[in-house]
Amino acid sequence: MENENNVKEVKITKSEKGNASQFVKKSKKKWIFIIAIIAVLAVIIGFFYAKNRTKQVKDMSYTITYNSKKYVGSYTGLAKNGLPVEEGRFQSGSEGDSNYLIYEGSWKDGKMIGNGTLSTNNYVLKNKDDGSVTGNYSGEISTGIANGNGTFTAKDNSNKKYSYSGEWKSGLWDGQGELAYSDRSYWFVEKGNFTEGEYDPSFTDLIAALGTRKDDCEFSLSDADRKYLKLNQKAFKKHKTSLINNKGKKFSLSGFKYDDDIDPTVTSVSGLTVFQMQKIELGGKTLTRVLLADDLYDNPTVYSTYYYGKLKKINEGTRVSIDLMPLGYSTYKGVNNSSVWSVVGLVSEINKK
C-alpha cells in the first residue's frame, strides 16, 4: 500500500493551538467592537434624523415676538428642530387680554413668513405719512403685515372709536372698504375705494357718503340715483345745469315731500335765503354744505344741500335760487313746536337773486 505508506501524520503542538485560539478571540472582540460602533452610529444617526425631521406637534410651548412684543403661548402644527414650519396655529392669551394673538398660516424657521390669518389687539397701522396707531386687527396677512381682507378697530386722536373693514395691500387700506365711527353722528361712513390708506371714492360713492351721518338729514341712493349721478357728474362738478342729461319727468317739490319714490331729476327752487355754510373735506375733495330756507320765520321749508367744491361770492343772508337734485327729506319740530320740512339734495347751480 504505497499511498498509505506515503501519508504523514501531522501533529499540532500546544503552542500552535494557543495561537489559533488567541486569533479567534481577537477576531471576535474586533467584530464585537465594530458592531458596537455601528450600533452607536445608528443610534446617533437615528437621533439626529428624528430631531431634524418635520413632525406634527400639538400644544407645543412656544414664544414669538410681534411688533416688538413677546407672546408666550402654544403651537399646533408642523415643526422642525422645535421650530414651527410650513403650516400651523399659534395662540397666546384670549380675546381682551393684553397678550392676545392668534396666527394661523405659513411658517418658516419659527417665524410668520407667508400668508395666513391674524387676530391681535397689538396691530400697528402705519400710514404713508409715517404716522401710526395701535389697535385690534382680524384678517388676512402676509409675513406679519395686513394683506387681503381684514378689519381694524382703534381710537383716533379725539378718543373716538372707529373701524375699517375691507381690502388691504402692504399694510394699508387699499381697494374696496368701509370706514365708520361707532358714533355715527360724529362723521360720515366712508364706503367705496381706498388708495394707500386714504379714502378715494368715485363721485357717486362720495355723494352716497354724505347721506350716512346719523341725525343729519340722512338719505340713501337708489340704483336710479346712482346711474343718474354717474351720467351727470360733469354737470355737478362744473355747476352747469345745462349739461344735465336725462332730466326725467317734471318734478314737484311739494309732491316729493310726501312721496320721494320718483325718477331722479334736477329742479329749480327760487326765493331762498342762505342761513348757514360749512366747508367739508371728504375723500380728498372739498364740498360746501349750504343750509337755506324759503321763510326764516314762519313754517319754513329748510334745504340741506351739498355743493361740489368751494362756494364763492355767496354768504350767509344772501338771497339765491338753486338747481337741486332732491335726495331725501326729514321733519323736525320747530321753535313753535310746528313740523319743519327739511329737503336734502345736491346742487348743480346756485345764483344770487
Describe the model:
This protein is an alpha+beta fold. 20% of the residues lie in helices and 46% in strands. The strands form two sheets. The chain has an eleven-stranded antiparallel β-sheet. The longest helix is centred in the N-terminal third of the chain and has 39 residues, at 14-52. The model has no long low-confidence stretch (mean pLDDT 86).
Secondary structure elements and pairings:
Elements: H1 2-6, H2 14-52, E1 55-66, E2 69-80, E3 83-92, E4 101-107, E5 115-126, E6 132-142, E7 145-155, E8 161-169, E9 172-181, E10 190-195, E11 198-199, H3 203-209, H4 223-238, H5 253-256, E12 267-282, E13 285-293, E14 301-308, E15 319-333, E16 339-352
Parallel strand pairs: 14-16
Antiparallel strand pairs: 1-2, 2-3, 3-4, 4-5, 5-6, 6-7, 7-8, 8-9, 9-10, 10-11, 12-13, 12-15, 13-14, 15-16
Instruction: State which percent range the strand residues make up.
Output: over 45%
Mean pLDDT: 86
- The percentage helix is 10-25%
The backbone outline, from C-alpha atoms, is elongated
Terminal CA distance reads 159 Å
Largest sheet: spatial strand order: 1-2-3-4-5-6-7-8-9-10-11
Sheet having the most strands: 11 strands, antiparallel
Order of helices and strands: HHEEEEEEEEEEEHHHEEEEE
Task: Show unreliable segments.
Answer: none
Counting DSSP E segments of at least 2 residues, the number of strands comes to 16
Radius of gyration: 40 Å
Number of helices: 5
Structural category is alpha+beta
